[in-house]
Amino acid sequence: xxxxxxxxxxxxxxxxxxxxxxxxxxxxxxxxxxxxxxxxxxxxxxxxxxxxxxxxxxxxxxxxxxxxxxxxxxxxxxxxxxxxxxxxxxxxxxxxxxxxxxxxxxxxxxxxxxxxxxxxxxxxxxxxxxxxxxxxxxxxxxxxxxxxxxxxxxxxxxxxxxxxxxxxxxxxxxxxxxxxxxxxxxxxxxxxxxxxxxxxxxxxxxxxxxxxxxxxxxxxxxxxxxxxxxxxxxxxxxxxxxxxxxxxxxxxxxxxxx
Length: 258
What we know:
Blueprint lengths: L16 H6 L9 E7 L5 H14 L4 E5 L5 H10 L9 H25 L3 E5 L2 H11 L4 H12 L6 E6 L4 H9 L12 H17 L4 E5 L4 H10 L29
Parallel strand pairs: 1-3, 1-4, 2-3, 4-5
């Protein structure tokens, strides 16, 4: 295996010290893969966007993606799996649609981006499938892991930020749907989403080195600082007050004038 090859690992064993050191990469090194996970309304989009902007300003190539989606095929599959009209879709079909979209984005976008040294930021990846389809839907966890393994073809996140609202499942759903109508997954019910949130926390407990919990219960600037703190071993400048001062995050708390 080459020095910088990304390998899939089930979220149980923690990386060795040498693996953690290897992850501390510079802009000129092969790519870094960061995923954001969490239940509905956790604020992933806001913090992915801010992180992408800061990285780009420092000269990194940033590839920002979402799952399912990120490719023409993936976006088509997204419209199918989230369409409220497809309420007869079986849990097994749902799983395979997600995996099909993932196989495409890994092959078409993620692997090439990592090979050329980009920072890839992805809103959801295989942890969401474990949380939603295994814990939420009740599908066999080992089978879901095998499906993830098949679709990912060796690609594995260097770091996963698990965002949690700190409030109730109901509050998270309200935050997710207050601007637009709920999609098919958001309409799955509060009990379903409570199981999903429990699944995410269990994933984090099993793999705390890769999956870092960030609670978004305060101002956006505070939450973003927490995100950067959990990435400082990958990007050491994020730990420097001189290079990454608190005022950098202040713009997140400024309300936009309509």
